[in-house]
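sorry to bug you again but im stuck and you know this stuff better than me. below you get a single protein, a line of residues and a line of whole numbers that encode the local backbone shape. mainly i need to know what kind of three dimensional shape the backbone takes. anything you notice is useful, everything is just below:

***
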Amino acid sequence: SQVNEEISVKHLPSSEPDPHVVRVGWSLDSCSTQLGEEPFSYGYGGTGKKSTNSKFENYGEAFAENDVIACLVDFECGEEVEMSFMKNGKWLGVAYRVRKEQLGGQALFPHVLVKNCAIEFNFGQREDTYFSVPPGFTFIQHLPMAERVRGTLGPKSKAECEILMMVGLPAAGKTTWAVKHAAANPSKKYNILGTNAIMDKMRVMGLRRQRNYAGRWDVLIQQATQCLNRLIQIAARKKRNYILDQV
């Protein structure tokens, strides 16, 4: 079967030099939120780059506010799955070909990574599509339930939630243990809360900020700490599993 979704982009105000990021695509349920920065995570970004496993290559065109991107997956290409994208109705070519045996029968899920943008999705619930879709493709929402695979379910109640708090001296290996423990228990979908985890999600083109940050490092750390305080407030209201990795 061939699967499709559309997203529409809108920028939110920001004072940063490069404030707006949108990356769309597909990934496995076991992948992290960092689309295109690990294996089996396939993204196409507004800078006109595609990426998987943190390998960024030129693809298609840049896209920005009010553009509409269609994400297409074709499972009828023999032994391969083909992923391609459209911008405002224009097909940009095949971005990825992945052998089905590599996926091992695992489902691909629609995935979007955003920074300072609001987006609107069309999984098939709209009466009209933003732009015409190639023949043979079906919107996800129109697929029969039997052909869909459910993502990992989170805890049903607060009582089922789990919080691990790391204790130890700096550089004792807490973050390393937390990352390994989260990877070893994918069904728990642990959210790691800590400035290290935040800094890791502030990558630019897959590179950590340490490698490409020209400003004052203490200012960046301060911003990460403010983010962490806000995330902890949000976390208290959600039914999730957490690892608190902060001295």
